[in-house]
Amino acid sequence: MNNLLVWLWQFILPRRYWYRRLYLRSNHWQTVKRMYKKQACENCGKVYSLDLHHKTYYENGRSILWHEKKKHLKTLCRECHNKEHFERMTAWHSNKKQTMKVLQN
Ligand SMILES: [Zn+2]
Ligand SMILES: [Zn+2]
Question: Residue 3 Cα, ligand 2 centroid: separation in angstroms?
Answer without folding.
Answer: 21
